[in-house]
Design goal:
Layout (H helix, E strand, L loop, with lengths): L11 H11 L4 E4 L6 H9 L1 H4 L2 E4 L3 H13 L4 E4 L2 H10 L5
Parallel strand pairs: 1-2, 1-3
Length: 97
């Protein structure tokens, strides 16, 4: 009745991180806030093994800027934040100038 196959037990953040690396992500920037802190932790712990540059930035605006900059440089990049952090990131595009 029960299968005796061994199956991995991972969190959603770990699965997202592994999927990002498998899809070619080579740069990850984040500001540590839950629920995205697990992604930053996994990426930092596996950065050398997976060939990913990981940067913890001082705020969400810096996170958005460096992720966009890495993309302009031709690197597949990703950033992570919380709901409140995302609200700050979207204000970046509303700034005059």
């Amino acid at each position: 009745m029960f299968s005796h196959k061994r199956r991995p037990y991972i969190t959603g953040n770990q699965a997202l991180s592994m999927g990002a690396v498998a899809a070619g992500c080579r740069f990850y920037a984040a500001y540590p806030m839950t629920p995205a802190s697990g992604i930053l932790t996994w990426m930092a712990e596996h950065s050398e093994q997976c060939g990913v540059v990981v940067k913890q930035m001082e705020d969400e605006i810096a996170v958005a800027n460096v992720a966009i900059g890495a993309g302009y440089a031709g690197v597949r990049s990703m950033c992570g934040t919380s709901g409140g952090g995302f609200a700050l990131m979207t204000r970046l595009s509303a700034w005059p100038g």
